[in-house]
Amino acid sequence: MSIVTVQLGQCGNQIGHEVFNTICGDVHGTHGLCSKKENESYHDACKERFFSEDESEVPVARAVLVDMEPKVISQTLSTAARSGSWKYNDRSHFCQKQGSGNNWANGYSVHGPRHKEVIMNLVQKEAEKCDRLGGFFTIMSMAGGTGSGLGAFVTQCLRDTFPSSFILNHVIWPYGTGEVIVQNYNSVLTLSHLYQSSDALLVHENDVIHKICAQRMNIKQISFRDVNQVIAHQLGSVFQPTYTAGGGSHYSRNPLGDLMESLVPHPEFKMLGLRNIPQMPENSLAYSTFHWPGLIKHLRQMLIANAKMEEGIDWQVRLPHLSSSVPSTHSINKPLHFNTSIANLVVLRGKDVHSIDIGSFQDPSLYACWLNPQEAFNAWKTPRAFNKYEKSTSLVSNSQFLLKPLDNVVGKAWNMFASKAYVHQYTKFGIEEEDFLDSFTALEQVISSYTNL
């Protein structure tokens, strides 16, 4: 099944380009450990998911690019075309001459309805090119105006137009130190609306990725492209083809459906986080050796201690014994003893992948007490290495990982709202105070649900 990617705003378009670049580079990379048949099967499954082909036989990304300003889209289209290995359809993009001014309401209430027909026509055309449509993958930021406001509106339109298709929103969490004065308003409005329309939200935090660039990739002057390439590597590590069950003989044909089935057992819990190890500079790979037991041990402790990267894992955090009395609720203002999960998916890629012991991820203590660990945990595998890493593993987790950042964003936005700061900038575009209150209520419920796991 094919995935149509919808790239929204500057952030969404720049990340989307890096995702397709990473995927294409991985497909055409050298993988001597796999048979020719294995590599061909992998290539075909990847192409079906992410690319179509035109007369030139150059892979064409299954994507729609949307921004209210033309500059980034123009750069994205030309950079992809110059690569020679893939390109975008030069008729699958939409832009205007005027941005959204970092105002969520402008993107959602003005640009969205005004340009709905042309944007959805582009999406419809891209969907019709798929022999089998598996769903939509939207990429957007929460902090600005176009990506967040227009992105929330487009997601709602996707749900209305394709009610039976899966929708996964990839959302970039803004830097905590602040990019935009109203980013907390934009974040609250975005998350509350996406929670109604999408099947799941896959979140990357800018602060975390920045740390990975500095501490794991050893980058001295970190650019947006460096950050986006790390995000793209992590996304590719999950979305590239795998066998979803016990060794299988065919690569999964329904990536979004399999992801939702594995990770979203209840509509109240839609927040997904992603961790990937190892991550290091390419010039260090030749001098590094990785062993599966060590990788699995580190990944499991990252989950337990809610560590977002290999560096600085707190090994003192321990799971409780089931016989001990563990409070059913945690105060949001106190550090959580451990990170309770709803569901976990481990993706394993590389040499000797079918001999790995991953039973430690089925420990009942990892999960909410009302879940069966055998059903809450899934593993996907392929012997084919990913992106030059001989062995690598990723964890997609539906857990309490985002509780603290979410509570902080809601708290900051509420403090601003209580003093009516900048509210007039939203009301002039049709977002009333009631809309803010509804959004706060919706996210307080999300916080409460995850807190009480």
From TrEMBL:
<keyword id="KW-0206">Cytoskeleton</keyword>
<dbReference type="InterPro" id="IPR017975">
    <property type="entry name" value="Tubulin_CS"/>
</dbReference>
<comment type="function">
    <text>Acts as a positive regulator of hedgehog signaling and regulates ciliary function.</text>
</comment>
<keyword id="KW-0539">Nucleus</keyword>
<feature type="domain" description="Tubulin/FtsZ GTPase">
    <location>
        <begin position="47"/>
        <end position="246"/>
    </location>
</feature>
<dbReference type="GO" id="GO:0005737">
    <property type="term" value="C:cytoplasm"/>
</dbReference>
<dbReference type="Pfam" id="PF00091">
    <property type="entry name" value="Tubulin"/>
</dbReference>
<dbReference type="GO" id="GO:0005634">
    <property type="term" value="C:nucleus"/>
</dbReference>
<dbReference type="GO" id="GO:0007017">
    <property type="term" value="P:microtubule-based process"/>
</dbReference>
<dbReference type="GO" id="GO:0005200">
    <property type="term" value="F:structural constituent of cytoskeleton"/>
</dbReference>
<dbReference type="InterPro" id="IPR008280">
    <property type="entry name" value="Tub_FtsZ_C"/>
</dbReference>
<keyword id="KW-0342">GTP-binding</keyword>
<keyword id="KW-0963">Cytoplasm</keyword>
<keyword id="KW-0966">Cell projection</keyword>
<dbReference type="GO" id="GO:0005814">
    <property type="term" value="C:centriole"/>
</dbReference>
<dbReference type="InterPro" id="IPR002967">
    <property type="entry name" value="Delta_tubulin"/>
</dbReference>
<dbReference type="GO" id="GO:0030030">
    <property type="term" value="P:cell projection organization"/>
</dbReference>
<dbReference type="InterPro" id="IPR036525">
    <property type="entry name" value="Tubulin/FtsZ_GTPase_sf"/>
</dbReference>
<dbReference type="GO" id="GO:0005929">
    <property type="term" value="C:cilium"/>
</dbReference>
<dbReference type="InterPro" id="IPR023123">
    <property type="entry name" value="Tubulin_C"/>
</dbReference>
<keyword id="KW-0493">Microtubule</keyword>
<comment type="subunit">
    <text>Dimer of alpha and beta chains. A typical microtubule is a hollow water-filled tube with an outer diameter of 25 nm and an inner diameter of 15 nM. Alpha-beta heterodimers associate head-to-tail to form protofilaments running lengthwise along the microtubule wall with the beta-tubulin subunit facing the microtubule plus end conferring a structural polarity. Microtubules usually have 13 protofilaments but different protofilament numbers can be found in some organisms and specialized cells.</text>
</comment>
<keyword id="KW-0547">Nucleotide-binding</keyword>
<dbReference type="GO" id="GO:0005874">
    <property type="term" value="C:microtubule"/>
</dbReference>
<protein>
    <recommendedName>
        <fullName>Tubulin delta chain</fullName>
    </recommendedName>
</protein>
<comment type="similarity">
    <text>Belongs to the tubulin family.</text>
</comment>
<dbReference type="InterPro" id="IPR003008">
    <property type="entry name" value="Tubulin_FtsZ_GTPase"/>
</dbReference>
<dbReference type="GO" id="GO:0005525">
    <property type="term" value="F:GTP binding"/>
</dbReference>
<keyword id="KW-0970">Cilium biogenesis/degradation</keyword>
<dbReference type="InterPro" id="IPR000217">
    <property type="entry name" value="Tubulin"/>
</dbReference>
